[in-house]
Amino acid sequence: MTVAAGRVPGLGHALALARGPMRFIQGLRAQGDVVTFYLGTTPIHQINSPELIRRVLVTDAHRFGRGQIFAKARQLFGDGLATADEPAHMRQRRIMQPAFHRDRMAAYVDIMRSEMREFVDSWRPGHVVRLDREISQLTLAVTAKALFRADLGTAAVSEVCRSLGPILNGVTKRAMVPDVYERIPTPGNRRFDAGLRRLTTIVDEVIKAYRESGTDHGDLLSMLVASEMTDTEVRTQVMNILMAGTDTTAITLSWAFHELAADPAVRHKVFEEVDTVLGGRPVTAADIPRLLYVERVVAETVRMHTPVWLLMRKAISPVTLGDVTLAPGAQVMISMPALHRDPALFTDPLRFDPDRWLDPRASEWPKAGVLVPFGAGRHRCIGEAFALAEMITALVTVCQNWELLPVPGHRVREVARAFLRPNALLMTVQRR
Ligand code: HEM
User: Which of 4, 181, 182, 263 counts the most CB atoms within 10 A of its CB?
Assistant: First the structure.
């Protein structure tokens, strides 16, 4: 077994991890295919090779459960698709899959476009915007509207937008500190508890209204209500989708705008394609397959800036990975950004290069376990197509009329929180 260099008695590697999580994790990559580090005295096995990552996520997935990190979300939001283990997970996945089917995407793209348009309409040329925050609001509104499209859900959409921000922040904090912290009546905890109560109440009311109306409104909630799930199960899934689908997409989309702002050549190629394909008309789902360069920009952003920097699993039966035999209960960790920035796998991995996707081998990367931004196997992201469509629609709608430029002197840094995100993204918005 390879133990990471720099272990401190009692603390393990906790300090090095806290000081610079991604630096620490990327440093482990060079030390072996499976490298063990310690949080205090608890060993965590980081898996660095694509073959072994594929085994954990796909071929040997039945030997692993989700692991500790999901426990807090499960406790707060119920055991939904994003946290459940087998056999409950497979049953839920089967019920939820149709809501994310390709046929539904056209309606979702219409929601994405109209939200994005409303959002850019508030911009004034020359203004500086805090883009990462604005995009968070946008993805929240898009997900909420895709869930509750009907008039019956209007109040829920505004409530979700109001409550979910503090809840998302609170979950991260709560996952990192002992449970007793939650019972201290700090203003943050009170806001969190009140937000969660309000959100639960309003989601329950909308579910009731949908059941009574008995109509398919063409949204996610209609699909869930029509399924064999109880009201509590439907509510749990709604909460899970809001949790799993908003920040991840917002952060990746923010990085895409950051990369466009940093490289005029890439930006102008996007402008050219958007003008040629759309000629000024609003984007629809049917246009997406023709926006090939924009698609490569999004793929490259997802590779370089994968927000999920920590994916945990827990062995539930003995399993040997490389030279390590894991006993049940052993914790395994996969860091997607560390994998996607490995110079042994990608040429010049820190360079943002949408054209690397023209490489004929690119289509093999996911199957080989080299590129897994949305996971792989039974837990592969159910919202992948939704997220890609949302990012493409947002980029195109902005780039039709606007050019976003970096603010001189403002340095954008990557910070590891619940997700790997930009510290703050300030941008000047100009009319094209
Ligand atoms: C760029 C955006 C996104 C990224 C990078 C991303 C990434 C991921 C990853 C890595 C997983 C696998 C987790 C695991 O193996 O334990 C996952 C699962 C999941 N994602 Fe996403 N996601 C994104 C957007 C979305 C969206 C938009 C939705 C919903 C609207 C969504 C809903 C889910 C759900 C429900 C799961 C659990 C699936 C299961 O276990 O069966 N995600 N996502």
Answer: 4
